[in-house]
UniProtKB/TrEMBL annotation:
The keyword Metal-binding applies. It comes from Plasmodium gallinaceum. It comes from the Eukaryota. Residues 1-79 form the 2Fe-2S ferredoxin-type domain. Its cofactor is [2Fe-2S] cluster. Pfam families: Fer2. GO terms for biological process: P450-containing electron transport chain. This is Adrenodoxin-type ferredoxin, putative.
Amino acid sequence: MENKIFTHIFNSACEGFCACSTCHVIIDEKFYDLLPEASDNEIDMLELAPCITETSRLGCQVKLKKELNGIKIKLPPMTRNFYVDGYVPTPH
């Protein structure tokens, strides 16, 4: 089963569709290199996020696997939500 960081813990504005940056996390360097490269769409969303670092990722795009057992992440001091109240994402 593929899990994504925060998918079941937090409700991001876009519900995991890589359309916002509310699930921005900072991955510990030791684990960052174990992740596949971020997609262009994820990079675009991260560029809109405040407080990005070299190891920033969108939690909704990080698939958990055995190699990531013990992963350490930090939450940035702030996030930005571009969606307004009442927005309902369209599933793809």
